[in-house]
Structure formats: structure tokens, C-alpha cells
Sequence to fold (229 residues):
Amino acid sequence: EVQLAESGGGLVKPGGSLRLSCAASGFTFSSYSMNWVRQAPGKGLEWVSSISSDSSYIWYADSVKGRFTISRDNAKNSLYLQMYSLRAEDTAVYYCARDNLWASDYWGQGTLVTVSS
Amino acid sequence: QSALTQPASVSGSPGQSITISCTGTSSDVGGYNYVSWYQQHPGKAPKLMIYEVNNRPSGVSNRFSGSKSGNTASLTISGLQAEDEADYYCNSHTTSSTLRWVFGGGTKLTVL
Fold:
């Protein structure tokens, strides 16, 4: 069974940093690209970043480019999102999702990031 | 980047059919057959319902179907059921700037 479990969310002050993790199981992690998608409270889904299976290709939304860094460790079946210079508008539930069939076919339950003083 | 355009809300009675539209540009919806649709119930993670415009993942009811014409994709739900009440999001691959994916703003489906 495919499982994705995010962790690392919490309360952080504006300008602060946070590192999210996503533990994957139930599939060959190293064979799939992965995505981070976020959802601000009461708002819609927003794609944040993607990384190819071997980390050779990385994409970012304009809203996070230069502040967020996506990475993965295929040996540990883990995906990461390092977030710097956090702003109030980064407050959201962050989901990791498997990229397959030109879609996100499996999603974690999400981790809440709150940026507030 | 601009999100894909969806109606904010649609509604229908049990047993009826509804269609949700998703309008983009030639850089996303119109340029690729990589449109997907997601269902999200309150407090839950999104669930993939349609991929590559009109394909259903295993386990998704055949009451859900997708199509595309030009820069507009559509999700049709036939034989509406109470459990279909949820938010629906379209998504497309994009080659706009250095991006990869773009979502629609979401549509709230109410089953009357």
C-alpha cells in the first residue's frame, strides 16, 4: 500500500525557517518524481515544487522561488522541503504527493505550517 | 502564475449530471493532454479522480468522466450522489515560465 507521511510543520515567526519531510513507503520511491502542494486555510490548492526521480530536474512556483528548496534522499525514501524567509502568506497545509500518470496519484495527509509572530 | 479558471460553485440534485469547466491557455490545458481532476472532502487530502484528460484511476466510479476542447477541460459527474458533494480541482502540466503544474481555483459541488 502506498503511504506518504508528512512531518515537520509547526508555528514559526515571519522570516524564520522550517524543514518539512515526507516519508514514503509501499512503492519504489526512487522511480517517481514527487511534488509538494499547499493549501492555505479556506483556499484552493497551490502547486509549490516538484523534483524528478533522480533529482536532476527541479521546478518551483514563482511564489516560493529563491526561498524554498526541494530535495530527496532515495536511500531513505524521503522527500524534503526546506523553507526560508517564511511569510504570513506561506501559512498552509503542505501535502507531498507522488507524481505518476502526469498527475499526483497519491497524497499524504498534510502538515500544517503557521507563520505568525 | 495564473491559476486555471473554474466556476466557484455548481449544484445538482441526486441522480442528475453536472459539468465543471476548467479554462486555461495554450501553454497548459490547450497544449497538453495532461489535465487531471481531484476531489477533496473537508479536512481530507485530495483524491485523484481523472488523469490525462479522460482516464479514471482504478477504484474511481465510472460516473466520473473527463474531456477537453481547445483550452477548456471539463469534468462530468453523472448520477449525482450525496457523497459527491466536495471541492473539485483541475490541474494541468504547464510550460509557462519554469513551472511544471498549475491548479484551478476549485469548484464547490453542492448536492441539493
